[in-house]
Design goal:
- By secondary structure, the protein is an alpha/beta fold.
- It folds into two domains: 136 residues, HAD superfamily/HAD-like (Rossmann fold, 3-Layer(aba) Sandwich), CATH 3.40.50; 67 residues, Putative phosphatase, domain 2 (DNA polymerase, domain 1, Orthogonal Bundle), CATH 1.10.150.240.
- It contains nine helices and six strands; from the N terminus they run βαααααβαβαβαββα.
- Strands 3-2-1-4-5-6 form a six-stranded parallel sheet.
- β4, α8 and β5 form a beta-alpha-beta unit.
- α1 crosses α4.
- Bound molecules: 6-O-phosphono-beta-D-glucopyranose (BG6) and magnesium ion.
- The site of 6-O-phosphono-beta-D-glucopyranose (BG6) has 18 residues, from α3.
Length: 228
């Protein structure tokens, strides 16, 4: 039985994945490094530092630790400046309705994000007080695909991992959720990932999935991928 739904933030709750992309694109252009949306999909869910390493792997140049620090600071400055116009209008379709429905059903809701800016974003879009637990990039040692961020979100609420379900747009996030023994729902880029238990195009498909799971009394152990 599902007692907790854990949401990724960027690209699931709010369209900030696009702002990450635009900020990294500026960095890549400055450094004349090839960068496109396909490469950007590899950055989903991974930390700022690991994202930079992926981008720099497309450059023949060797960067010092100090140069990498400068690039990360620049990227974050571009990114944070683009967040200042963020409002509740940027909340993705279906999010508000799904959160309301989950509350009514007494299912807890959490955020598990690799971003150090997660709380700033939640505040800007007016959702900071909505979640029962929030785990962000400042609280974890390993970013996705490590399961730590999901495990922390569940532990904070004393919910066993097998009673939690994760919604992710990042393949790294799906991998992390599976390692944490949680059900994994892919949206956006992750909806093209074979490892998901379920794939959705929009968040409003989540409630029907939860209903099917509870009817079937499925647990991670009895549920086969793509069964529903
Ligand atoms: C994740 C994004 O949510 O946060 C990644 O999917 C990003 O693309 C990561 O690199 C870290 O974000 P921040 O805001 O700490 O640089
Ligand atoms: Mg994401």
């Amino acid at each position: 039985m599902i007692k907790l739904v854990i949401f990724d933030l960027d690209g699931v709750i709010v369209s900030t994945d696009e702002l990450h992309y635009q900020a990294w694109k500026r960095i890549a252009e400055q450094e004349t490094i090839p960068f496109d949306r396909n490469i950007n999909n590899r950055l989903r869910g991974v930390s700022r530092k690991e994202s930079l390493e992926i981008i720099l792997s497309y450059s023949p140049k060797q960067y010092t630790k100090n140069q990498k620090e400068v690039l990360m600071e620049q990227k974050n400055a571009y990114y944070v400046s683009s967040l200042k116009d963020l409002t509740s209008q940027d909340i993705l379709p279906g999010v508000t309705e799904v959160l309301k429905e989950l509350k009514q059903r007494k299912i807890k809701v959490s955020i598990a994000s690799s971003s150090k800016n997660a709380r700033l974003i939640l505040k800007q879009i007016g959702l900071l007080d909505v979640f029962d637990s929030i785990v962000d990039g400042n609280m974890i040692t390993h970013s996705k695909p490590h399961p730590e961020v999901f495990q922390q979100a569940a532990q904070a609420l004393k919910v066993p991992c097998e009673n939690a379900l994760v919604v992710e747009d990042a393949r790294s996030g799906i991998d992390g959720a599976l390692k944490a023994n949680m059900l994994a729902i892919g949206i956006g880029d992750a909806a093209r990932y074979d490892k998901c238990h379920f794939k959705i195009l929009a968040l409003n498909e989540l409630i029907p999935i939860l209903e099917k799971i509870s009817v079937k009394q499925c647990s991670r152990h009895s549920l086969k991928k793509g069964e529903l």
